[in-house]
From TrEMBL:
Its cofactor is Mg(2+); Mn(2+). Keywords: Hydrolase, Magnesium, Manganese, Metal-binding. This is NUDIX hydrolase. The keyword Metal-binding applies. It comes from Corynebacterium stationis. Signal peptide: none annotated.
Amino acid sequence: MSRAQHFDPAQIDAIDHADTTGFNGGRMAATVLLIRDGQNGLEVWVQERVSTMVNYPGYVVFPGGGVDSRDFPPRSWDSGEFWAGRSVVSMARRMGVTKYKAHALVFAAARELFEESGTLLVVDDDGPIQDSSPFHDQRQLLETHEVSFTDFLAENSMKVDSDLLIPWARWVGSSGAKNWFDTFFFVALLPEGQTPDGETGEAADANWFPPRLLLDGWKAGLVRLVIPTWAQLQRLAQYDSVAEVIDAASLSDTRPVIGDPKDDPRYHDFFTTTPIDRITWRSHQQR
């Protein structure tokens, strides 16, 4: 497995407004592993991407996407204005990036999760948001890029709660369309009172699943996964509860995994298993 050298802590406070890319110039992206304690153990929220998507059509993924230029803070910024919870400097140390990039990545994670699942990881003057449905119309404006996430937060007197997003992993590589991405994975506990949905144009279906069930589906050729998603599911499958995952997240190695880690024994099954594509076979049978 190839990993980059760890970040120099002396650079945490550096703010270079021209430096908005990730490792080796890759586009920075954020992905959220939204988890809950289900009736039979740990469950994670995933969605199957529609067939028209440029990257990974038909694949099962976690909510997430690329960092928007407006996720970065303005040239003169106070991280406390739209930020609650663990400080941006603390998050930057944990993630191994500058506080400028940490702000953008946390905002991107919260924004993408809201856009794709309707789940809000924010607080207002009354505390955590427990019902995100009143903001559905504004969610659509975010999806179409008509408003920025900062505009949305300001309009509703909200702040992103960084305590609800825990750094989990970082993978760097090319997408299905050969675009280079530097993707940061976060774990998030489903906020009390909120219910995610699949009301996004990017997903053909979305729901809660036990991680092991998704991995079994992949092996049976019923679920399409790429290695970063497979790796996170494999790690989640080791735990039985949200509490166990949160504890494990505190020990996460957030140095980037570069490319396809074919030589790492943890990912041996992915690179040596060739599932029969029963999804394509089934669609042909139905015609």
